[in-house]
Write a structure and sequence with these properties.
Elements: H1 7-22, H2 36-51, H3 59-82, H4 87-111, H5 113-118, H6 120-123, H7 128-162, H8 167-179, H9 186-213, H10 216-234, H11 240-254, H12 257-272, H13 280-288
Helix pairs in contact: 1-2, 1-4, 3-4, 3-7, 4-7, 4-8, 7-8, 7-9, 8-9, 9-11, 9-12, 10-11, 12-13
Amino acid sequence: MKRKLTLEEGMSILKEGISKAMLILDGYPTGSLFTCEEYMKLYDCVYHMCVQQPPYEYCAELYEIFKKALEESITSRVMPALKEKSQITLLYEVWNMWTKYKVMSKFLGGFFLYLDRHFTEDRNAASLNELSICCFRDLVFSELYPKILEAAISLINQDREDNSDCRDLLKNVSTLFIEIGSGKMHYYDNFETAILASTTNYYNRLFPQWLLYYPPIDIFMKAQNCLNQEKDRASQFLHQTSVEKLLQVVHEQLLGQTALDQAKLYQKQKTECGDCSIQYQEVLSGCAGLNLGEGSSRV
């Protein structure tokens, strides 16, 4: 029979393993950090401390040790890597750190795996995976989410202007917003809401400029082109339901009632100036009833 391990003895064994696991956040490959024997030694340590008879059963303490290891990895490595970043560099780095953090927390969770079988269900506590997500959300997103969201919206607007090669990154950000919610869509829904508001503002500013410089038929063609581009763009990083909402917004701003109201006002101003040559509202009235797919084979 093995002798009983005290909490202090067990912690001295686990401490080195936890420190090594954190090196994953520095870019070290997992295969270079532990031999199979070292990994099993750490697992056996946790297992042994879980199944010992009271007062030597340390499940609650080990769960707290796992949580503190996650928190330390975030405060000592993740947050310093993100603190000075902004805009696109912030998006790249938060996805990079999130990816490495998931690997690290899964690797670390392997040491403590017995807790999921022997402790979390019995105590109705968060699983080790749920706890790892919660720590990242509480320590990273609670502080940086507004900056991350602002940077993502800025990147989408930039892509509208110059077709920048950033859609893989936007897909990663969209995925992050879903994963960090642990089954809830709060962060993604906020992302969608921000995109729809930003899109409304973008085209609400753009359409009056078209009225100044283009005849109605050109406006109609430009609107269809924008719908095509928005669908192509958004389909690469948004859920289909979000894409549909986005296209509805674009249609409303360029071919719907909002566009028609702006055209009427512009037509009135031109008429008052004695210019009745171009009937914008007649063309746009015909366009306003079109479905999103009419006039284009791609939308």
